[in-house]
Design brief:
Blueprint lengths: L12 H17 L4 H9 L11 E5 L4 H6 L1 H11 L3 E4 L8 H11 L2 E6 L3 H5 L1 H11 L3 E3 L11 H20 L3 E5 L15 H7 L7 E3 L2 H6 L4 H7 L6 E4 L1 E4 L8 E4 L8 H11 L3 E4 L8 H15 L3
Parallel strand pairs: 1-2, 1-10, 2-3, 3-4, 4-5, 5-6, 7-10
Antiparallel strand pairs: 8-9
């Protein structure tokens, strides 16, 4: 091979060989290759919320219509006004590329996802790459792992597992949060703290944040605003959900309604959130009277007026 055919006619043979050696090393390690560049370029950039926080829609709210028509459902969400979403409850077994394509077609961006933790313990690199590609900086399980719920010892073991996963996510520029229901405000025998307090006190604030579900906290008898202030800086994503507590016929002891139609003191909750650094106000409604699109529209109008887009 002649060096002038490579555009190297003005360098010495030694310099050319050195350059070719570096090229070979780059190919071997994966740096500088087209494939590596494509992988980096294909990852969705994390969305920066506006000062004071931005709003998003938890797609679990739309799980039923999405089963029949995912593309149409996502488009209707955007038509309502939602721009950012938390991925959850959507059709299973979608690749990261398929999720990105579906969101792009609807002009939506993913900022977070609800995910199981066990896959991260089995193959952390694959899982973190998957969700980083989708654009989800913030990840959260929908509750404690099932094998870590029964006893205090189990719970503490779960806290240790979550802390370890959160530490690894932090190293790759992502964050782990914990999403509660009502049972996390219950207590284990012999410990005066709630399960959620134990979890947050047993983990590093840098490794595990709290994605407080406002409705379930209220339904459990807690003061959501006081809890937010208690753990100042520990919540980057807040689940905005409204409820009428004390309806025992409903799961978790409360009837879910569109934002502003329940008993949540939103002025106090949102004031506490602004004081403590909440970045994302994520609307979610597991069920409700009317269609998901109807209460998602009502809730969008309510939340966008109080927080902004």
């Amino acid at each position: 091979m002649k060096f002038d055919n490579l555009g190297l006619s003005n360098v010495t043979r030694r310099e050319a060989l050195a350059a070719m050696g570096l090229m070979a090393l780059a190919c071997k390690t994966g740096f500088g290759t087209a494939a590596a560049a494509e992988t980096t370029a294909s990852a969705e950039p994390f969305v920066t919320p506006k000062p004071g926080g931005s709003i998003a829609l938890q797609l679990y709210t739309m799980r039923e219509p999405a089963k029949k028509d995912l593309a149409g459902t996502l488009k209707k969400c955007r038509d309502i006004g939602w721009e950012y979403v938390q991925w959850s409850g959507m059709p299973a077994k979608m690749s990261a590329d398929e999720i990105c394509d579906a969101l792009k077609a609807a002009d939506l961006k993913c900022i977070s996802a609800h995910v199981g933790m066990e896959p991260f313990e089995k193959d952390f690199d694959a899982q973190s790459r998957f969700w980083k590609k989708v654009g989800a900086k913030d990840l959260a399980p929908g509750g404690m792992m099932k094998d870590c719920q029964k006893t205090l010892a189990d719970w503490l073991r779960g806290a240790k597992r979550l802390d370890a996963i959160g530490a690894k996510l932090r190293e790759v520029g992502m964050r782990l949060s914990y999403h509660n229901h009502t049972f996390e405000f219950e207590k284990f025998d012999g410990d005066p703290r709630t399960k959620l307090d134990i979890l947050l006190e047993s983990t590093s604030p840098e490794n595990l944040y709290d994605e407080l579900d406002v409705a379930w906290a209220l339904a459990a008898g807690a003061d959501p605003a006081a809890f937010i202030r208690k753990y100042k800086g520990r919540m980057k994503c807040l689940h905005c959900k409204d409820v009428i507590p004390g309806v025992t016929s409903e799961p978790h002891g409360g009837k879910l309604v569109a934002l502003g139609q329940g008993k949540v003191n939103w002025q106090d909750v949102l004031a506490a959130a602004r004081e403590t650094g909440v970045e994302w106000y994520i609307y979610e409604q597991d069920r409700g009277e009317g269609t998901p699109f109807e209460f998602a529209k009502t809730s969008y109008e309510f939340l966008s007026k109080l927080v902004g887009g």
